[in-house]
Amino acid sequence: MPPIVTGSIITSIGLHLCFISYGQITTSPFDTYMSVATAGSIMLISVYAPTNAMRRISLLLGTIIGYGIHAICGSKNIGPSINYSGIVSSPWFRAPEINYQIEFDSQSIGMVLPILVVFLAENLGHMKAIQSIITTGPPMLKYIGRAYLGDALGCLIASVGGTIPFTTYAENIGVLSVTQVFSPLVILFAAIFAVLLGFFAKFSAIVKSIPSGVLGGVTLVLYSLIVITGIRIWVVNKIDFNDTRNVFIGGVPVILATVMQTPLVLGNFQLDGIGVATFLSIILYQLLRGFDEWKQCFSDIRRSFRN
C-alpha cells in the first residue's frame, strides 16, 4: 500500500481507539484525576527519568504510580477503594480452560472471509508503522510474509483451543515507540513470559483490579503514539496535501473512524470504524487515480493481454 493509505489506516486506528480511553477517563470525576496522574507520570518519566532503563519502562512505572495513588486515596476515603476480593479469592496457579469442540459453519466462514481483507491491510499498516519508528536494520516489509503466517498460525491455534481468532494489536506499536526496544529475541522472551503469566491466577486478578481511571491514562498515551505514528508516515514520505486526492484519502477515512463508534451492519456482516476506514482508504486510492493514471492503467492491461 502507498504511504498515504498506510498513514490513513494507522491514524484511523489510533483515533478510533481513543474513544475507549475517553470512556475510561470519564467514568467519574475521580477517574479523570487518576487518568491525569497516570498519564502525567508516564510522560514525566519518559522525559525526565535519569536513566534510559527507567524511560523504557515508563508505561509500567506510570501504571504502578497510578495504581498506588488510587489505593492510597481509597484507603483515606478520598475516592473509591480498589476491589481486592478477586485477588484474595483467586488461587496462585490455574490452568486455562480449553474447549476442543470444533464446528464448521459455512455461513460463519462466509461472514469472516471479507474481514480478512481488513486484517491484511491492518497488519501491513502495522508493519509500515513499525518501520517508520525503527531507523536501523533491514526493511520490515521484507518479512511481511512471516507476519501474515504468524497471524494465521495464531488464529488457527486459538480456534482449535476454543477461543476467538485474533489479530495484531496496535497498542504494541505504542509500546515499541516508548521502550525503543525492537529486538525480536526480546519480544520472543516477553511473549513466552506473558504466556507463563497466564497460568498465574493471582497476576490475572491484579491486572483485572486496575481501576478504570488508571487504564484510561495508560491507553491515552498508547493510542496517542499510534496516531502520531500514522502522521509520521505521511511526514517521512513527504505526502503532498496540496493534492486533492491525498486530502480525501487522508481525511475522510480518518474522520469516519474517529466518529464511528457503532459498527456498520450490512445483513449478517459488521464492520467497525477501523474496518470501514481501511476499506475506504483502499477504495478511494483506486477510484481517485485521475485521468492520467487510469490511462496508464488501461494501457498496461492492454499490453499484458497482447503479450
What this model shows, in words?
The protein has one domain. The chain has a two-stranded antiparallel sheet with strand order 1-2. Helices cover 71% and strands 2% of the residues. A hairpin with a 2-residue loop joins strand 1 and strand 2 (269-271). The protein is built from 14 helices and two strands. It is mainly α.
Concise overview:
One of its GO terms (cellular component) is plasma membrane. This protein is an all-alpha fold and 307 residues long.
SSE arrangement:
Elements: H1 3-25, H2 29-48, H3 52-56, H4 58-75, H5 85-89, H6 106-133, H7 144-160, H8 171-179, H9 184-197, H10 201-208, H11 212-236, H12 244-259, E1 264-266, E2 269-271, H13 273-287, H14 291-306
Helix pairs in contact: 1-6, 1-11, 1-12, 1-13, 2-4, 2-11, 4-11, 6-11, 6-13, 8-11, 12-13
Q: Helical proportion?
A: over 70%
- Poorly predicted regions are none
Tally the helices: what do you get? 14
Order of helices and strands: HHHHHHHHHHHHEEHH
What Rg is obtained from the alpha carbons, in whole angstroms?
22 Å
Strand content: under 5%
Largest sheet: 2 strands, antiparallel
* Assembly category: single chain
What is the average per-residue confidence, as pLDDT, rounded to a whole number?
81
Integer count of domains: 1
